[in-house]
Design brief:
452 residues; 2 domains; DH_E1; 8 strands; two-stranded antiparallel ribbon; six-stranded parallel beta sheet; alpha/beta; Rossmann fold
């Protein structure tokens, strides 16, 4: 049954127990004051106030596109007003020789895959300047997290052609992962090269974390940075934004190098984004940003060197966008002529070749000649040919190696069970069934660690 409730009068003792406005902990009862600034203030920004209703679509003044930094023109001559970076003959020749080496190595391994002698490969055709120029500007102990088209920078650090071949063939001398990774997924503790993984863009937030680890290490803070390479297609992933957000706000000394080569597999950059490339995203995260001609090795070198300096001195992210062109197919799993005309590729190779541009610069300085070029190419072809023949003859790692170093520390129970099961199968079929006997002969030890 409904019963009415008596409402107390204002003189009731309940009123005396209610807190006064000035004693409340909430903010709703705060008395507003006259602002001292006539235009008022913004709670989370120092942005200036304007009375004009104006939308903008550019990070530069005058609604213009971001400029591209360049040192050399197509003929290898410094453009007007350009300052050639300080570079001696020895470093210039080292950079050039690695640029020449890359397409020779790429062509050999690409053809080996087509012959069925390795399972996969991915080339750097057309991007030699972007890769070598940036790699040359780094310290040898900077931590690099690459995508999969930066083998030239790893070779520049001292990784050998034999190391490349052993990884691609998966031999027992594979220092990257003892045959556990697919070809072209290199790694090296010695050269501070974090092992490449196939999933797109995962290395970007990981690099921000590596930068944070460097920041926390008193022996490396202010000395090194983390460096992450990725394509403009990877920048469409959420991991790109997560990595930049972390490295800019924590902040961490992480250098982001975007290779904008025009294609994310078959998707052209015009369909990847509507804004002004990848560089336009840098200011949104409050980081220093530069766009550079990725076919000009001196411009890439100078831009990366300065970016690294800022990254380490300020301890926060820096973004470099290299504008280049992917001359080769995305990988051996791709036929790029299905989505772009062959003539476009041939024109790019002829009219804007990064190797030729740098060669003309060296010849103009008297640092290089046609005879030296012929000898260099001949020597690299012989070196690469001999290296792949050596690797092809080597056995694969011992069978039991597939279970080692998958995880750090003690081997987990599930791997122990799998290893025991494989041992039972090898003991049952390894000596009697020809397909298993033939497969075991490809491995160092022929599976004897399970048969004995």
């Amino acid at each position: 049954m409904f019963r009415p409730v008596r409402i107390p009068r204002l003189s009731s003792p309940l009123l005396s127990r209610a807190p006064r406005t000035s004693q409340r902990r909430g903010v709703a009862g705060t008395t507003p004051e006259q602002p001292t600034n006539a235009l008022g203030t913004l709670p989370t920004s120092s942005s200036p106030i304007t009375s004009k209703l104006h939308f903008f679509n550019s990070v530069t003044s005058g609604e213009k596109q971001i400029p591209t930094y360049r040192v050399l023109d197509g003929a290898g001559q410094p453009i007007e007003g350009a300052e050639v970076p300080e570079i001696d003959k020895a470093l210039a020749l080292k950079m050039y020789k690695h640029m020449v080496q890359l397409p020779i190595l790429d062509e050999t391994l690409y053809n080996l895959q087509r012959q069925g002698r390795i399972s996969f490969y991915i080339t750097s055709y057309g991007e030699e300047a972007a890769v070598i120029g940036s790699g040359a500007a780094l310290a040898p102990d900077d931590e690099v997290l690459a995508q999969y088209r930066e083998q030239g920078a790893l070779l520049f650090r001292g990784f050998t052609v034999d190391d490349i071949m052993n990884q691609c063939f998966g031999t027992y001398l594979d220092s990257s992962g003892m045959g556990k990774q697919m070809p072209a997924h290199y790694g090296s503790k010695e050269f501070h090269w974090h092992t490449i993984s196939s999933p797109l863009a995962t290395q970007i937030p990981q690099a921000a974390g590596v930068g944070y680890a460097i920041k926390r290490d008193p022996n490396r803070r202010g000395k090194n940075c983390a460096v992450v390479y990725f394509g403009e297609g990877a920048a469409s992933e959420g991991d790109f934004h997560a990595g930049l957000a972390l490295a800019s706000t924590i902040p961490t000394p992480t250098l982001f190098i975007a290779r904008n080569n025009g294609f994310a597999i078959s998707t052209p950059s015009s369909e990847q984004y509507y804004g002004d490339g990848i560089a336009s995203r840098g200011p949104g995260y409050g980081v220093h940003t530069i766009r550079v001609d990725g076919n000009d090795v001196l411009a890439v070198y100078a831009a990366t060197k300065e970016a690294r300096r800022r990254c380490i001195e300020e301890g926060r992210a820096v973004l470099v966008e290299t504008m280049t062109y992917r001359v080769g197919h995305h990988s051996t799993s791709d036929d790029s002529f299905a989505y772009r005309p062959r003539k476009e590729v041939e024109d790019r190779k002829r009219l804007d070749n990064p190797i030729m541009r740098f060669r003309l610069f060296l010849e103009a300085r008297g640092w290089w000649s046609k005879d030296e070029e012929a000898a260099l190419v001949k020597g690299f072809k012989e070196e690469v040919g001999a290296a792949y023949k050596r690797a092809e003859r080597l056995p694969k790692p011992p069978v039991a190696e597939m279970f080692s170093e998958v995880y750090g520390g003690e081997m987990p129970w599930n791997l122990r069970e799998q290893k025991e099961e494989l041992g039972r199968l090898i003991r049952k079929y390894g000596r009697t069934w020809e397909p298993w006997r033939a497969e075991l002969k490809k491995h160092k030890g022929e599976g004897k660690e399970f048969l004995d």
